[in-house]
Design a protein that fits this description.
Blueprint: H1 2-7, H2 23-36, H3 40-48, H4 87-90, H5 99-121, H6 126-142, H7 166-178, H8 183-201, H9 208-214, H10 220-239, H11 254-275, H12 281-302, H13 338-346, H14 363-370
Helix pairs in contact: 3-5, 5-6, 6-10, 7-8, 7-13, 8-12, 11-12, 11-14
């Protein structure tokens, strides 16, 4: 517990907060670098707080706790407060670990402590507490292994969880609704789609208990299932490097988007409106004038059971749909087909930003809209 109080970078997350970048993740990275510089015996003692005693088969002690608090470096002969056996008896599984193995295990323990504190601080939503407990136990089970633990399986399923994917459906939407527009107008809608996917990948979802109050007509069982998957595969891995991270838009589909879209749309527009004075005029026009219209059209397709954008066999490459040249060239050279570049470029924002993306708010601006990063 003292390690949790001393080290935790976890803070209470605000609604819709971003999940990448920012001071919280920088603090976590800095703390891990500081831990890496600690004496080996201090690292071993920290790891021992999650190792059971190996003294003999009768000892049921599950974690090292120092018998006395001291500013001196620990020794392997120090006694455990719980079982009175030595520190050496707790750390036998790692006694032959190299320094690199010790550091890797230490960082897993640090992630476990952050997750444990998140669980203890979560007072309102029992489902979220259970999800944190599941993640903690998964990491503890694999903490001495060299590979990242796989969370896929019976409890959560295996990503991607739905098809077509959100990113694919939004790509289909752009082609379906705007493929016949003049190049400049088509490009604007294409850029708005990239911005939407970026925001969705950085959005913090409502907990199941909050969602039950804000969207009582939704299938709450399905929302809880998708929320647990999102927490484990998309949200927690951003600040917990011991878990593999997945983007929501590349691993969820229609049911997920349908359950989060209305709340996200309302909050996004509210925040863009609040941030508009900080934007350049052309960017302000994009997000205040055009983005709401884009979202309204997208909403119609999300909730339309017969919309073609959700068809697996949607044809992105009709003869009439030529993707605009990145440079707006009027050259006779054939432009690449939407199938060859449309999907990959659309989901790669901001990595795909070029000069033609000048009207899109920068990632820094978008992060200020979706919120500051918290766990």
């Amino acid at each position: 517990d003292s390690a949790l109080r001393h080290d935790s970078m976890a803070t209470t997350a605000s609604k819709g907060s971003s999940r990448r970048g920012g001071s919280t993740l920088q603090k976590i990275a800095l703390k891990k670098e500081q831990l890496k510089l600690s004496p080996r015996i201090k690292k071993i003692e920290r790891i021992a707080t999650h190792l059971s005693c190996q003294h003999d088969a009768s000892c049921q002690c599950q974690a090292w706790r120092p018998a006395t608090v001291s500013s001196d470096l620990p020794t392997l002969l120090d006694s455990c407060k719980t079982c009175n056996h030595s520190l050496e008896a707790h750390v036998r599984p790692i006694k032959d670990f190299t320094d690199d193995q010790i550091d890797r295990t230490l960082f897993v323990v640090y992630d476990m402590d952050n997750i444990l504190l998140q669980m203890k601080n979560e007072k309102d939503d029992q489902d979220l507490r259970k999800t944190y407990a599941f993640l903690f136990q998964s990491l503890k089970k694999h903490m001495l292994q060299t590979k990242l633990p796989s969370l896929a399986g019976e409890k959560l399923g295996t990503p991607p969880f739905e098809k077509p994917l959100i990113a694919k459906a939004v790509t289909n939407f752009v082609m379906y609704k705007f493929g016949s527009l003049p190049q400049a107008d088509w490009q604007m809608m294409y850029d708005l789609a990239k911005m939407f996917l970026y925001c969705l990948n950085h959005w913090k979802l409502e907990t199941p208990s909050v969602h039950a109050r804000s969207s009582p007509a939704d299938d709450q069982r399905l929302y809880k299932e998708n929320y647990a998957r999102w927490v484990c595969f998309c949200h927690v891995p951003v600040f917990c490097e011991s878990l593999q991270k997945y983007d929501a838009t590349l691993n969820f589909g229609r049911t997920f988007l349908g359950s989060v879209f209305l709340v996200m749309r309302r909050q996004l527009l509210e925040r863009f409106t609040a941030e508009q004075d900080k934007m350049l005029p052309e960017k302000r026009t994009l997000v205040i004038t055009h983005f709401p219209k884009f979202l309204s059209l997208l909403e119609n397709e999300i909730y339309n059971p017969h919309s073609p954008i959700w068809r697996e066999d949607f044809n992105q490459t009709p003869e009439a749909l030529a993707i605009p040249s990145p440079l707006g060239s009027s050259s006779k050279t054939p432009t690449p087909s939407p199938a060859s570049v449309g999907f990959n470029r659309l989901v790669d924002y901001p990595g795909s930003m070029r000069s033609r993306d000048a009207t899109i708010p920068s990632p820094a601006t978008l992060n200020s809209v979706v919120g500051s990063p918290n766990q």
